[in-house]
Amino acid sequence: MALDKIEEVGSSKSTFFELLGGEEQGMETLRNLVETFYDIMDSDPKAQPIRAMHPADLTSAREKLFMFLTGWTGGPQLYIERYGHPMLRKRHLPFAVDESARDQWMYCMIKAMHQLKMDEALMTKLAGQLYGVADFMRNQ
Ligand code: HEM
To answer: CB within 6 Å of ligand 1 — which residues?
Structure first.
């Protein structure tokens, strides 16, 4: 993907959701990203501390992150329609999110993006934005 397209993100021209494939492909891309992300969290020893914060069954976490990211990237607001305002920081307060937890979360996400061979420029931009959200989740 051309860098000038990526730079349209945040200008009103393109949303991440459009760059990820829009109506036709965007949801499938995000579904694959979230499935791969949690598969990595579930199996990579580097993510063991954050894996342990999650319930044994990741089905609901997978579904909720997929729904959230679909809306957050500019696609249909699936999470908000179902659960209301995400209040993500508040919802993460029960978990000890420190720099290490944040970095483990980003490690799983970036590894998933690489595994799915996401376009490099898009990956950099998307990971940068997600880092901001992950850092905002820190509560210690
Ligand atoms: C910074 C490190 C993070 C840690 C350690 C973490 C951990 C967790 C845990 C343990 C849960 C509960 C899962 C469950 O009950 O099934 C959760 C829920 C969730 N997380 Fe995170 N998370 C982090 C960052 C993020 C980020 C960056 C996002 C979004 C981009 C996110 C989105 C969500 C969503 C949408 C839910 C479901 C909330 C709900 O409706 O209950 N998390 N997270």
So the answer is: 50, 53-55, 60-61, 64-65, 68, 83, 88, 91-92, 95, 97, 101-102, 105, 130, 133-134, 137
